[in-house]
Amino acid sequence: MRVVIFLRLGLLILLVTGDVRADLSAKQARKLITRMAGIELPGGAVWVKKISSTSNSSAEATAEINAIFRLSTNTQGLWRVTELRVGQDRWEELGPVAALHTETLSSACDGPDFSSRRPATEPSTKRARCLLAAVLGVQLPSDAVRIKNVSTLELPLASRPSAVVESLITVELRFARDKGGWLVTALRTGNHDWVSPEILVASANEAKRMQAREEMDAMARALARFRSERQSYVVSESQAVLVDYLSPRFLSRVIRLDPWREPYQYRGDRDTFVLRSLGADRKENTADDIVVSSHL
User: Fold this and answer.
1) Taking the domains of the chain in order of start, what are their residue ranges?
2) What are the tens digits of pLDDT across the range 215-243?
3) CATH number of the 203-293 domain
């Protein structure tokens, strides 16, 4: 009887110890990376190169990510990194703060040394690598930024050339485990500081909220001018119809999608109107909706 008790006790200790020491596996890390910070990458886009446990509830890893960036020319005709693809048909803009921070470094990629026989509408592989390294804080030469492919991107009604760059980027990550399991707590590239994915998302969404508010305020002002001349707001339940009525006489530019790439919503009758952005969750009538109306 004592033998049975000891065996059961030993088995229980092993099980508990096994749970406490359950190190983060490369498979788990890859899955977490493909879904961190709202990103939706295919599993084959992430390769975990090294992983180590720093304690019972923390780990660090180095991974290579197949990342796709969009490059566009600025007002001076110079190529700059503008967006990162974060999912199927989903792109995340490089924020104004980050753009200003990397402008000086990116300017080093504008010289003739980075030109090639490619068409003027397509950056060279060397220039694309230089621009990505500037954004990611990587000192070249380095294998932390590698270019797989550069191709032109045809955008409807686009006034400036754009290109898509498929790259392999080395990223360092930190993980922590709580009662809910493992999660990514910080990441960094090149010589950048460690940053929380949640802070990145929150900062990006706050910038987008400000942009959405500015765009809806512009539409509201255009509606006020429209009503002053026509004695009525635009009567419609379609924001696309609204813009067709306002542009270009009352609204100098066409505004159809909010910063989350979702259509703005509009409902208007002769005396009232409501403009709405669905916000980061892309759902109507939730707490993060951004609303501008004739009553505000």
Assistant:
1) 22-195, 203-293
2) 999 999 999 999 999 999 999 999 999 99
3) 3.30.700.10
